Amino acid sequence: MTTTENRSEPTTVESLDWSTTPTDAPGWLARARDVRRVLERDAAARDRAGATPHDEVALLKDSGLVTILGPVEHGGGGQEWPLAYRVIREVAAGDGSIGQLLGYHLLWFWAARLVGTPEQIAAVEADATRNRWFFGGAVNPRDAELTIRDEGDELVYSGRKSFSTGSRVSDVTVLEGVIEGTDTHVFAIVPSHQEGIVFGDDWDNIGQRLTESGSVTITDVRVPWAAAAGFTDRVFTPRVYNTLNVPIIQLVFVEFYLGIARGALETAARFTRERTRPWLHGGHERAVDEPYQLDLYGDLHAKLWAVEALADAVAQEQQVIHRDADGVTAEQRGRHEVRVAAVKARATDVALEITSGIFEGLGARATTTELGFDRFWRNVRTHTLHDPVAYKRREVGAWVLRDELPEPTWYS
Questions:
Q1: What's the whole-model pTM score?
Q2: Of 114, 190, 281, 352, which residue is least crowded by CB atoms under 10 Å?
């Protein structure tokens, strides 16, 4: 369990010493808590402003969190996904948008591992770690695929995607498209700031306002065949591990949902202790002695702890697959996806319950715009509509009743 309650002074960037890279889990979690404390100081105000989060991404870079999965020899943390997930959760407790940005970045940072050749993996991870690249991705599967023209030594991408999380704050963007006249999909990593990439600056949603998730138009973006992820002599050799991007991103979702829920619950508890007034007919001098308050916070915390524990367990199960990327079987992958679906469903329900339920313990005075307690619910509500949670429960049910494992798709 983590907590940042009962702090005497807010944390500022200037007060932090990030001159060295953490070397173990406690050090990385402490670094993530530092970032959380900086973010939560003015999270409500930044949510209202909705400005492009250049400073927030700089914070992630300066803290080193963007390289937690990077090779140690290039200045990265050399850590594994279970710890990275906990770091995402911690950052999201301070600001859900920035937790999402970090989570998506880490997935796309890992994209070379998922589909690249050994040479591509080494090159991408070295450059991305040394330069602290921040990754975005234009891979929304609900839109038409980007088209790719094969022009001999180069592939040329064109098309439009409705969503491109990270957009203007990214250094590089992951593209995915289909070569014209074929069913061949090709991933590639390209510089985000070039003439052929135009971000729509049209992300205007009720929640996750700082994720820069608006549209992007791709026009004649050229990529050498050598940069086509996973291709050798223009041929791609598939393996089951290629499909692990969905379980990874779904666990990323789980972590920032739980982080937002924790941020809401701890911020609300602090407000209830310090500012909520007892009900005038309740017979108590302090709000913290009200039986309904004790029941509320006890119930919500118990539910959060339970899903956090499940999320940690599923993350450890996934790490077993990461350690044997070439040996993972379709059945092993399918069983893991069922577990991911289960925790995604529970995290969705619990995060929505907590972020709306805290108001029962806050009182009417806590609904002011300045306090911004509504941002927690708006953030969870916005992103939990990414893909219907009913289909996650269906995956679990089909395995329980019919012993059916989900087939790999863009959402399972």
A1: 0.96
A2: 281
Integer CA distances (angstroms), 203 to 97, 114, 181, in order: 12, 29, 33
3-state secondary structure of 261: helix
Q: What whole-number distance in Å separates Cα of residue 367 and Cα of residue 359? A: 8
Q: Do 378 and 281 share a domain, yes or no?
A: yes
- Residue 410 domain flag: no
The string of pLDDT tens digits covering residues 249-284 is 999 999 999 999 999 999 999 999 999 999 999 999
Read off the CATH number of the domain in which 323 is found: 1.20.140.10
**202, 236, 270 - which closes a domain:** 236
200 neighbors 187 (Cβ within 8 angstroms) = no
- Would the pLDDT of 67 be above 60? yes
The token duo for 192 is 């985000």
How far, in Å, CA of 170 to CA of 140, rounded? 16
The reply to whether 389 and 246 lie within a common domain is yes
Both tokens of 340, joined, read: 């991911």
Out of 131, 155, 187, pick the residue that ends a domain.
131
Structure tokens of 259? 């982080």
Beta bridge partners of 154: 224
Q: What is the pLDDT of residues 339-365, one digit of tens each?
A: 999 999 999 999 999 999 999 999 999
* The two three-digit tokens of residue 347, written as one number: 């995290």
Buried b (16+ CB within 10 A) or exposed e, 13-38: eeebeeeebbeeeeebbebbbbbbbb
Query: Does a structural domain hold residue 382?
Result: yes
